[in-house]
Design a protein that fits this description.
There is one protein chain. Helix content is 40%, strand content 20%. It is an alpha/beta fold. An eight-stranded parallel beta barrel has the order 2-3-4-5-6-7-8-9, surrounded by eight helices. The protein is globular. The structure holds 3-methyl-2-oxobutanoic acid and zinc ion. The site of zinc ion has 5 residues, from loops.
Length: 539
């Protein structure tokens, strides 16, 4: 990147102490986040996440890429119809058919936005688009104009902006703003930039594009070098007014900028940034849990802000300091990001109201039907387990949310096995009114044997790509949560199962994946992640 205007990050672009700039939070968990392999969500899950994002009070939800598939289109349209509060945005390439489709999907929103993008860097121009600089400006302007013919809120992104010649980038930005773009988003598509470069890039745009004040400057940083949050914050310092990010930093490759990191950096270091967001920070942990549960993308324990250990103090010196004065080692309070203090919640005699209360405190909004289903499961669990923790309840709720229109349900199994012995399994499943049973002696162990029995009964053969089991809470009677990723006809599907018995949890997870496959094949839900992506190429 050519340096046109070296600026000292510590000196300019800052506010006086009394001012606080409002930074808009544009969440793209449902679009860029969902593009992450194996993270696709069905319609019901997307609606659940979109509602959680609205509760978190994000400013804009990028709900999907409507031209990508009928499932993407349906999800964006339903979110636009049902979710109130944030602006609902749909992504489109600078092509008439993409823009028309995006508008069809977002038109029912209270406040719709169309986000058009076109790559501008020499690498993309030469190898991907085979277009000249002039052709790209013309296509970008036409895209913005077409989007504006539908709605007044139009965002433009010059894809791979950080590897674009700065003079040319300034020309593109000026042209799309002159065409009417209300937000200009600067993507670091491949996560290549450094914080100082981002600072200089945004400063250059602010200082050299004559009409820049007519649009909000946004940034969209990928995390390939682990710099996405730092790059976004440097851009804010330079004057960016919108940050594009995802919950838990979900996204292509190493992911996008993590929403929770930027939001809490601005809040905790308000003295430095003099900027704020309108995010309800107490909803960060519940939203993180929801997204992790739905996508199966586990949040690392030491993940900033929302990781299980983010506020755990292990070292004696630290514990001693914290007990004397919390601020010795803690710069944020766990309750400010939504960690609940009570861990032990419910028992056998807790009623429906207590359960509903606890679910709300954990950040879940359950419909009466969902509450009934979770309460039934809770009673069954309370018979097996004396103490039910927040984590147990969250797992039951997420299981209910992730539930698809089940064709197959688990009924019972028996397995006998031992060292050096082929396992012998008996399995009973239900399909509607039909009860099906099978027996076999095969497999490498009890889990493999149950998987083979499920394949035999359902007639669906799968390749198991990933299998994980983790304990939801503590104690020998803790529930096991099994997640599987399976490949079926070159597509990846996920499944999750929960039980105090690990083999049963595995069977439920496998069956959950099979139900998703069948729902997908019957066109009930939006699609899974493809092993070989079916998304239209970016152009
Ligand atoms: O990373 C990127 O460039 C994108 C654009 C579509 C904004 O996701
Ligand atoms: Zn991106």
């Amino acid at each position: 990147m050519e340096e046109r205007h070296p600026v000292d990050p510590s000196a300019s672009g800052r506010q006086s102490a009394s001012e606080s700039r409002r930074i808009r939070i544009f969440d793209t968990t449902l679009r860029d986040g969902e593009q992450s392999p194996g993270c696709s969500m069905n319609l019901r899950e997307k609606l659940e996440v979109a509602q959680a994002l609205a509760d978190l009070n994000v400013d804009i939800i990028e709900a999907g890429f409507p031209i990508a598939s009928p499932g993407d289109f349906e999800a964006v349209r339903e979110i636009a119809r049902q979710v109130r509060g944030p602006v609902i945005c749909g992504l489109a390439r600078c092509r008439p058919e993409d823009i028309d489709r995006a508008w069809e999907a977002v038109r029912y929103a209270e406040r719709p936005r169309i986000h058009v993008f076109l790559a501008t860097s020499p690498i993309h121009r030469e190898y991907k688009l085979r277009m000249t600089k002039e052709e790209i400006i013309q296509r970008a302007v036409e895209g913005v104009r077409r989007a504006l013919s539908y709605c007044p809120d139009v965002e433009f992104s010059p894809e791979d902006a950080t590897r674009t010649e700065i003079d040319y980038l300034c020309q593109v930005v000026e042209a799309v703003i002159a065409a009417g773009a209300t937000t200009v988003n600067i993507p670091d598509t491949v996560g290549y930039a450094t914080p100082r470069q981002m600072y200089e890039l945004i400063s250059t745009l602010r200082n050299h594009v004559p009409n820049i004040h007519q649009a909000v400057i946004s940034v969209h940083c990928h995390n390939d070098l682990g710099l996405a949050a730092a790059n976004s914050l440097a851009s804010i310092e330079a004057g960016a007014g919108q940050v594009e990010c995802t919950i838990n930093g979900l996204g292509e490759r190493a992911g996008n900028c993590a929403l929770e990191e930027v939001v809490m950096a601005l809040r905790t270091r308000h003295d430095y940034y003099q900027a704020h967001t309108e995010i309800r920070t107490q909803r960060l942990v519940p939203t993180s849990r929801l997204v992790s549960g739905i996508t199966g993308m586990v949040v690392q324990r030491n993940k900033a802000i929302v990781g299980q250990n983010a506020f755990a103090h292990e070292a004696g010196i630290h514990q001693d300091g914290i007990l004397k004065e919390r601020t010795t080692y803690e710069i944020m309070r766990p309750e400010d990001v939504g960690f609940t203090t009570t861990q032990l919640v419910l028992g056998k005699h807790s009623g429906r109201a207590a359960l509903a209360d606890r679910a709300r405190a954990l950040g879940y909004r359950l419909t009466p039907e969902q509450l009934n289903a979770v309460f039934e499961e809770f009673k069954l669990l309370a018979d097996k387990k004396k103490e039910i923790y927040d984590a147990d309840l969250a797992a039951l709720i997420e299981q209910e949310i992730a539930h698809v229109l089940d064709r197959w349900t688990f009924e019972a199994y028996r397995v006998s096995t031992g060292s050096g012995q082929k396992p012998h399994v008996w399995l009973r499943l239900r399909r509607g009114e039909q009860v099906l049973e099978t027996e076999l002696a095969d497999g490498d162990g009890p889990v493999d044997a149950v998987f083979l029995a499920i394949e035999k009964l359902t007639g669906i053969a799968l390749v198991c790509k990933d299998y994980r089991v983790h304990s939801v809470s503590v104690g020998k009677d803790a529930q096991a949560e099994v997640s599987v990723e399976v490949e079926y006809q070159n597509r990846l599907f996920r499944g999750r199962g929960l039980s105090t018995d690990t083999v049963e949890a595995s069977a439920r997870a496998f069956l959950n994946a099979i139900n998703r496959i069948q729902a997908f094949c019957n066109g009930i839900h939006s699609g899974p992640q493809t092993a070989a992506s079916t998304r239209p190429p970016n152009s």
